Amino acid sequence: MKVKDHVRDEVTIRFAGDSGDGMQLTGSLFTNTTALEGNDLRTLPEFPAEIRAPAGTVPGVSSFQLHFGSKEIMTPGDECDVLVVMNSAALKANLTMLKKGGVIIANTSGFDKRNLNLSKYGDENNPLDDGSLDNYTLLEVDISKLTKESLSDSDLSYKDIERAKNMFVLGMLYWMYNRPLNSTISFLETKFASKPDITQANIKVLKDGYHYGETTELFTDTYTVKKAAIGSGDYRNVTGNKATVLGLVAAARQSNLPLFYGSYPITPASDVLHELSKLKNFGIYTFQAEDEIAAASSAIGAAFGGSLGVTSSSGPGIALKGEAIGLAMMLELPLVVLNIQRAGPSTGMPTKTEQSDLLQAMYGRNGESPVAIVAPATPADCFETAFEACRIALEHMVPVYYLSDGYLANGSEPWNYPQQKDLKKIHVSFEPARNGDHEKFLPYVRDERFVRSWAIPGTAGIEHRVGGLEKEELSGDVSYDPDNHQKMTMLRQAKVDKIADFIPEQKIDTGNEKGRFLILGWGSTYGMIRTATRELLEEGVDISHAQVRYLNPFPKNLGDLLAGFDHVIVPEINTGQLVRLIRDKFAIPAIAINKIKGRPFFVDELKQEIREVISSKS
Amino acid sequence: MSLETKIDLHTQNGSSETESYKGKDFSSDQDVRWCPGCGDYTILKQVQNMMPKIGVNKEDIVFISGIGCAARFPYYMNTFGMHSIHGRAPAIATGLKVSRPELSVWIVTGDGDSLSIGGNHFMHLLRRNVNVNLLLFNNQIYGLTKGQYSPTTPEGSVFKSTPYGSIDHPVNPLALSLGSDGAFVARTMDRDPRHLQEMLIRANEHKGTSMLEIYQNCIVFNDGAFELFTDKKSRPRETIYLEQGKPLVFGDNEEKGVRLDGLKPKVVSLDDGSYSKEDLWIHDEQDNTKAYLLSRFFDQKESVDGLHLPRPFGVLYAIDRPCYDEGVRNQVEEVVQRKGVGDLDEILRGPETWTVK
Ligand code: SF4
Predict the structure, then answer these.
(1) Whose CA is nearest to atom 5 of ligand 1?
(2) Which of A45, A370, B133, B220 has its CA 20 to 30 A from that of B248?
(3) What is the third-level CATH fold of A515-616?
(4) Which portions of chain A are predicted below pLDDT 70?
(5) A window 329-388, beta carbon within 8 A of B
């Protein structure tokens, strides 16, 4: 049979299997190869909530979705073109993600009686042969058996052989998509450097998978996805959490400060702790604290001593830090709080994404307690936004919330990474020492930005006390004076408002500067809104898109920008939080579009919702 | 290239010589606002008086407190200070000490602050053995909130929130400290300034977390809570002052001693000829088991032959073990030695890159 090659401008593949099947690795390796081939891409891994959910069951399914193309790719794809399932549970959990008419590559040995029972199809109902998949292209491959055959001469244990089956899948897909094997081979050589027999076995299975694609008559089509026309430069692939780490390290370098990171393990923020703790030779101090409160408090202690203090968490962990963040605000010390948001409330859905902590960041402390807030828009944007969070905290002596989320944290995209020489400097100076005959040091004297000086221990002549009690305007002495309290409250607010003079103006991302409809988003919805807006523009809709990175204070021109549109639509993965801030601040009837399913928007559903708003307004 | 940061450059400018001070150099310009007669005054005075003796410049000293009457302490010290949030001073101090190990860091806390709301941090500070000093002002009451029982208040006590008597079993702070693997555990009292100062100096000299419990009289809400130990008349009978290598002797005329019968402490009489000082328990600060037994000289009901055990004051336990802050520093230095100072461009680039023309 002749194999036909098709050129595609975008493809979405979803790898799904049991947690133990190595689907995350398979997906990442395919991603790296794809990136090196010059495609634009986005990924979305999804893990089971349980660490070791029973093998073969639906809750134990782990998946990895990759959307790549020769055109601009801004989302991991609403639906997939190809679904790889290693067992029946993986099919059950993921079939709804597959396009009608899409391709299913099924590992038939994962559809034996045991698996069918565990996945609750029942051993009499094998979906592979009951006709229920007739609307799809079903490719059945006994991957487990073929892997065993591939390694029949090897001395490896049964377990190691079983583990290699994901390489067979990868090999087949490399053949299907005309991808080279060399990046994966060199990965295997490094990863198992100390176990050459495992390296060789995996490489053999990978190649056999590739050849299987070539020789078997099962596959009738291959696909070519050409290089994307992305801007020239040097690229790497990066996840949101990794980019966040790099942003923090870069900020520490560019301010020449030690980085102190106080953290307590929590999903999905822990990876930031893991990554930072590897970078000790950058002068980074990571402290795994006894609890969330200690994590935040230790960062405040470090900031008092002159370090870049950072703490991180998610969901309920952030709630615990509230009092400490209020203290940092009151002391007027720099503190960066990373909130890698997850679906709430309470424990919520730890492995699922949501952007429902904006109002908590804005208002979730006792008293009048303003802090700055920023939010990254894409995995790579986490770098610059984390850097900005540090810059604002250090230059304005204020706590800054950084609102990433689970979707950005684990998702990845190509990144035109910067070099150190291109990075901004962060300007920090400590209050200098003074000798005895100097006048008394007043810790709450402010400059023209309402920022006090950073007066660190170890500096002679400026010994002073700070605290959470209300303080007298200049001296910082405890004060219960009514007028002073009002004045200090206003000053702390003015200080945060003033940051607006030191951040970039809001830009329109897509579409005209003025018009009928503006879609205003923040955070991780960027890719979906941008794609939806572009598609609607092509359909002739008068629509624009802007994504807000600086959420408190807003960019100075935001009000004017909004005023240029008849209607402002705010889609969010919550029940309406930015939309409330916009209505409150600008007194406009902004329209909310909300989804709260623990998942990002799909482009199609977003377009549909936007169309509905548009038709209600015309 | 080194890891020298802005902090190093900034603090190197200061003078390297140690200033000589008088006690009053350590008092700030703030009016002290504790109730007249409060035990906190003596403690403040002794801390201010001992500071010139430790040979540290006052810009290198930091007092950190949580919330409570005791927590006002930093405002009255002319050093760096932070009056923070309830119970969290140990966590703040840990962050400061890890990032600035050259500073002399003091935590001032109370029984509610440290053993109730901040109990978790207290325990972890001690087990990590961060090189800071923790002064635990124990007055067995919530003073600042006007008189509720605290986690150290004896059972049955009647206070504002316990009109029918407290049914809460109290914390034994020294046993808790030892149970948390505290490396320096000591007790003193406000009414014995000489001993208090001696203990402050010992605490400061010890490398690691030095936990000093100070019995402190709250004259307003719990006056006389420790009278048995502080009153000149009962003190000889009710207390025992521990000294390294010395037998455990007490009593009006030093006529009583504590003897170890296996692991059971017994009060024996030294004046009826049956026992002499050689037969007594010899205090050894490095003996963990003995320290634990001493920490249990706590319950007044624990009496043997009608003679109850005296309350020990002094250093129960002091050993050297690695400090967390030092460990963190060493690890950073080790990794720098091994890998060299990190190259930002290398990690920005990551393991795999490609170029788009
Ligand atoms: S309430 Fe008690 S502890 Fe507090 S200041 Fe007054 S006497 Fe001292």
Answers:
(1) B34
(2) B133
(3) Rossmann fold (3.40.50)
(4) 1
(5) 331
